[in-house]
Design brief:
The structure is a homodimer.
Chain A (H helix, E strand, L loop, with lengths): L6 H18 L11 H4 L11 H14 L8 E2 L8 H13 L6 H4 L1 H17 L5 E5 L2 H16 L3 H4 L5 E6 L5 H8 L7 E4 L9 H13 L3 E8 L11 H11 L2 E6 L23 E5 L11 E5 L4 H6 L29 H35 L4 E5 L5 E6 L4 H10 L4 E7 L2 E7 L7 H17 L6
Parallel strand pairs in A: 1-11, 3-4, 3-5, 5-6, 6-7
Antiparallel strand pairs in A: 2-8, 7-8, 9-10, 10-12, 11-12
Chain lengths: ~450, ~450
């Protein structure tokens, strides 16, 4: 390696500086995109600069980057920072194992297998299999690929040229539509089923759509149900959907990218009833489980499915005698980074019990937030909370403007979403370090904004 | 974040321990996959363990993982370790920016844009565009997706249902075939064109195959040429292929996952003549450029192409006013890790000049290795070196057995590959810290193996 004296000491200093700055300025000052490159001196040099100058530039850059670790960050389905996970990620980078073969990755392969087995157990797949993928969208893509190839067994070899349909709810993730475009299924062949008042896919309308399509000679490929929708955190009715899938012989996928890990929490189990009837499940550990982006797993109930759909012979790569432990044969990538070690690391420190407690606490914070909203006529709930998100309005104010002002004044970072043509502020509680006082502080900031800024109402 | 006192100090200690152990034992003892989990105590605990116990387990695991940073690691198209890159990666994990929007990623988006602009300049695309993807296979996938949608403008919306063909060489990467299966094109519709004595695709046979297909009413979708094939490091004849692509109106992609960065090295430019005629280019920075896995970019000559093929509307995500700077609209993923910062970091320290010098030095080492082979009748070159790989045999011995023995005896980690039905040992020179003495030492190890082990000849 390039031998920079004390480079790891400098890394430690920078991490410490970063944390200190975040405690002073939890929300970064918005930066002008037009001038950021020159102001932060980001240009790529023709000749290399010395290590100290590099560390200086990197520090300036880090301190100007929005912090997703601060307690006033409610903007995404991830938040916080865990040192065990960061340490795991750094060691993974230092080892730089490509996760395709036992020969190169060695015991890192065992880590993946242990995690996949544990997640399969939690979902109720028993002797299932799985693969780490670069994000929930790609996990969904692999599930859809498998379903497409099952629907048309010639697709992989000869090309896909039958019209078939995909079902998801109008509040499902956009990757379902995107992936249909990628896989040759066609975005127009995604049927978006309407939801009930809580944002859950209506099983009756799903069955109607399927029946209608079949009457018109169009066969269904896959039903995508969601465990934790992006905006409302809603859970589709898995038992009913599972029955429909079985009745019609359709692949049943569950996109649990956001909500999946809540399976570890007893009080959420009822939302998942019937989920074990599904054929595949997307589980993102980089959202609720606190590991850095990305760490996503596609779980598949029936062993052998991934190999059947993804294996390619490559003599220069698969040279071991223990073929069953060459994970590259069942992944969508060739060279693949080690996303498992950071999850293993954090799991060592938290344990399954720690995760259950963490989710329980966060669910309590959402109830606490809902209480604040109910007790203040300035606020109004747009959709009752289903899990760890809460959508509300500031009565008489534009949600989008509130969010922009909160950021501009460095008070909080939060986003908005559409629900039944209303634009609502979406509060997300996923940072395990979050406390009631942080939630209270957030609402305080909104009250201040509405008073101080003389915002025009809608 | 979880507040473990001195966690960054512990990280620094572990990184130092790792480096020290590698200097003592550059090749790890092969480990028994059946018992690795229990011997290393890898199980996922029900209750969390204390931080010290976790760090102890992590250290044991790290020290049992094959080291791709050691100087006797010749097994993959990546090697070495750079502290600036590791620091960049760790800070990216600590900031945990999802690279979809300016609002969340801020100046990290600028870093991506600067790198994409620079790489476009190097390839000769002028005002091109690009997207970071999770590996060379996926970069190739995106290129093939674009070509498929150009071939059939209805494919994205209505599904793909025309038969079309893809051309690549028999020594091209397996992801081309795999991706054809994923995209609905069909693996059987990939035509593998034979190569000349140096492993380069034969343009005459390519044109013949295209003409033949067209005569049979099958239209070509894409030609994939390779800049640095996996086994031989060969470069296809871009000028001739470019002419054929233009003549027939076919999308011309270059898979430069391995060899792309050699464009930065003057003495390799002649191998790339005509490459700027291509429409898209896969560039992996995690191979020759020394950044940890993965850091791949798909470059596209014509601006607007990525948006046209990948954009999905998502109101809860794209909430800025500066749409042109929302990179999530042009990526295959939704949530996306920051792969750019580590490349930016190492580039600061090396500069473009430093990379050019590094590649020049490595090319010299390959020549040095070829010299050793020519001067010792025990060795025989199987294919003249084209760039940074060298394929040779140990006369009278099985290449596979030699590789296994080298690993078992902890002497070196190196792989083998098939060339014209011969199995050759593939030496890869990509670690910038490598010196002539390390190469000489490697061949010394093989001599020792053949003497000491009493290996049966083939």
């Amino acid at each position: 390696m390039s031998n920079h004296e004390n480079s790891w000491t400098r890394l430690k200093e920078l991490l410490t500086d970063l944390e200190e700055s975040e405690s002073v300025a939890p929300v970064r000052k918005p930066i002008d995109s037009q001038h950021a490159a020159s102001r932060l001196d980001l240009a790529l040099p023709e000749k290399g600069i010395d290590f100290d100058s590099f560390m200086g530039k990197l520090k300036n850059l880090a301190l100007a980057t929005p912090s997703s670790a601060s307690k006033q960050f409610f903007n995404q389905l991830f938040a916080g920072r865990d040192s065990a996970a960061i340490i795991g990620e750094t060691i993974a980078a230092a080892l730089n194992s490509s996760m395709y073969t036992w020969r190169i990755a060695g015991p890192q392969v065992i880590i993946e297998r242990l995690l996949i087995r544990e997640l399969n157990n939690i979902v109720g797949y028993g002797n299932g299999e799985g693969t780490f993928s670069p994000g929930g969208s790609i996990s969904n893509l692999i599930a859809m690929l498998i379903a497409r190839n099952r629907f048309d067994p010639n697709a992989r070899a000869k090309g896909f040229n039958i019209t078939g349909t995909i079902y998801t709810s109008v509040e499902g993730h956009y990757s379902i539509r995107k992936n249909a475009g990628i896989l040759g299924i066609g975005r127009n062949n995604v049927r978006e089923i309407h939801v009930d008042d809580h944002g859950r896919m209506r099983a009756d309308l799903l069955e109607e759509a399927i029946t209608e399509d079949k009457k018109n000679g169009i066969e269904p490929i896959l039903i995508n149900a969601t465990a934790g929708t992006t905006v409302r955190g809603a859970f589709d009715p898995f038992t009913e959907i599972g029955l429909i899938a079985r009745r019609h012989g359709i692949w049943f996928h569950v996109d649990g990218a956001f909500g999946g890990p809540l399976l570890m929490c007893e009080q959420m189990r009822r939302r998942f009833i019937g989920v074990e009837q599904s054929d595949s499940f997307t589980w993102d550990a980089h959202k609720l489980m606190g590991v850095p982006l990305t760490c996503s797993v596609l779980l598949v109930k029936e062993k052998g499915t991934l190999l059947h759909n993804l294996y390619e012979q490559a003599g220069y790569l698969y040279q071991g005698d223990e073929d069953e432990i060459e994970p590259g044969m069942t992944s969508i990538q060739c060279g693949r980074r080690n996303d498992a070690l950071k999850l293993w690391s954090i799991w060592q420190v938290r344990g399954r019990v720690g995760y259950a407690e963490q989710f329980s606490k966060l669910l309590g914070l959402i109830r606490y937030a809902a209480g604040i909203i109910r007790n203040d006529p300035l606020f109004s709930i747009v959709s009752e909370p289903q899990s760890l998100t809460l959508c509300f309005e500031v009565v008489g104010y534009c949600s989008r403007t509130i969010c922009t002002k909160l950021e501009e004044q460095q008070r909080a970072l939060v986003g908005f979403g559409n629900i039944d043509n209303r634009v609502a502020i979406r509060l997300v509680c996923v940072n395990p370090e979050m406390e009631e006082e942080d939630i209270a502080f957030f609402f305080e900031q909104i009250r201040a904004i509405t008073k101080e800024c003389n915002l025009e109402s809608r």
